[in-house]
Amino acid sequence: MFFSQVCSFPIYDGHGGCLAAEFAKKHLHLNVFQLGYRVS
Question: Which InterPro entries match (predicted)?
Fold first, then answer.
């Protein structure tokens, strides 16, 4: 199934440690963009 729109509302709460939350904050959106999703 393919979705033409994706919404993301991440909460970087530190579950798994502060460094994990900081890493996700800095890198998660880049991985999504690499999958081909675009920002409108």
Answer: PPM-type-like_dom_sf
Burial 1-35 (b: 16+ CB within 10 A, else e): eeeeeeeeeeeeeeeeeeeebeebeeeeeeeeeee
Domain that holds residue 27: 13-40
Helix, strand or coil for residue 35? coil
What pLDDT tens digit does each residue of the chain (40 aa) get?
Answer: 566 677 778 777 777 788 888 888 888 888 888 888 776 6
Domain-located, residue 33: yes
